[in-house]
Amino acid sequence: MSTFNPINISYTWDKENFEKAFSNSYTHQFKNSARRYVGWFFVALAQFGVVAAFKGGSIGLLMLATILILYWYVIKKWLIHQRAVKAYENSPLKNSKIKLQITQEGVQQDNVFIAWQDIQGLVPVEDDILLYYKEKAFYIPVNAFTSIEEKSALKSLAKEKGRLFHV
Questions:
Q1: What pTM did the predictor assign?
Q2: What is the pLDDT of residues 33-44, one digit of tens each?
């Protein structure tokens, strides 16, 4: 067995990283959720409402169906984003330096240790990584690694531990 050098990850949890984390985790969670299919059903019903409104000349039904479609595609994400921004702004981690050390045993952050068997998964999204632990997504930007080799080593280790998932 080869020796594994710990991977040291360091980045600042700033507004830019928050925005990328929100966008990547929202997209990933929506793509892999049953809500996606419920939403398609919801939109299909609303579109039937639009057709019925045109055929029957009902302006009220047309307005309702249009509002429902706008809610699903635009307003819902905006509301969730606003709630996330408020949580970020009130977070004690805002603009703080995040440091993680990844080893064969798990992930260490300050005095907190998470064993690999407690990690739900590691998901590469675009150039960044989402680490899922206890229903929460932890964002690791590509610039948190000192080299591309370290990022590859993290993916290889996660795969070895059975925790690497693809989008």
A1: 0.71
A2: 777 777 777 777
